[in-house]
Amino acid sequence: MIRAAVFDAYGTLLDVHGAMRAHASRIPGDWERLSADWRGKQLEYSWIRSMTGPAHHKPFWELTKEALEFVSARAGIDDPELKADLLDVYRKLPAYPEVPEILSALRGARKVTAILSNGDPGMLADAVGAGRIGHLLDAVISIEDVGVFKPDRRVYALAVDRLGVPAEEMAFVSSNAWDAQGALAFGMKVFWVNRARQPEEYGLGTGATVIADLSALPTLLA
């Protein structure tokens, strides 16, 4: 029996491309490519900081800003106001349309609901508040409690410790294949949200349940 549904935040509940989309008319060139580059560099920075040890850890918000500076410089964008506006939207990224309904359905089915995210507490508080989903969550868990980023096993252990639910009775839901693999290796029941219709990797096609969005989740966890 699945007793808890634990969600990644960025890319799973929240649209990480919402900031660039909101200011697409001000961005020279291909804003979608720039947004993907920003996301990729943000994650790269998190992995490098985790691998190089606790002395090199920085909050995810700092990495988000550093990643934007890098991709903006590479794209020849030197507009402080635009970068400030992009960061302002990123603090309050829109939730995907189905998110409130799905969280509400899970709570109605007496499932514990939580976020487990690389985001630092301030980022997550802003995002959850902007998305008006705080009342639908039992916990919002940040990796800052262990000072290392996903997919380190200590992050997934945080959810077990905080919620008091064994890994095998916990559904972990993420749109990031590497994150899904981390949770799968930890022993959680994993649902990979393949919104972008990417090819399967890490063996997730057999080890995890692959879904196109969150709409079927309440039925799958019933």
Description:
- The chain has 222 residues and is α/β, with parallel strands linked by helices.
- It contains 10 helices and 6 strands.
- It has a 6-stranded parallel β-sheet with strand order 3-2-1-4-5-6, sandwiched between helices.
- Strand 5, helix 9 and strand 6 form a beta-alpha-beta unit.
- The longest helix is centred in the N-terminal third of the chain and has 21 residues.
- The model has no long low-confidence stretch (mean pLDDT 96).
What order do the helices and strands follow?
A: EHHHHHEHEHEHEHEH
Q: Tell me the number of strands.
A: 6
Q: What integer is the average pLDDT? A: 96
Percentage of residues in strands? 5-15%
CATH architecture type of the largest domain = 3-Layer(aba) Sandwich
* Rg on CA atoms, Å: 17 Å
For the largest sheet, list the strands in their spatial order. 3-2-1-4-5-6
Number of domains: 2
Under the CATH scheme, which class of the largest domain?
Alpha Beta
Catalogue the unreliable spans. none
Secondary-structure blueprint of this entry?
Layout: E1 4-7, H1 18-22, H2 31-51, H3 60-74, H4 80-90, H5 99-108, E2 112-117, H6 121-131, E3 139-142, H7 153-163, E4 170-174, H8 177-186, E5 189-193, H9 204-207, E6 209-211, H10 217-220
Parallel strand pairs: 1-2, 1-4, 2-3, 4-5, 5-6
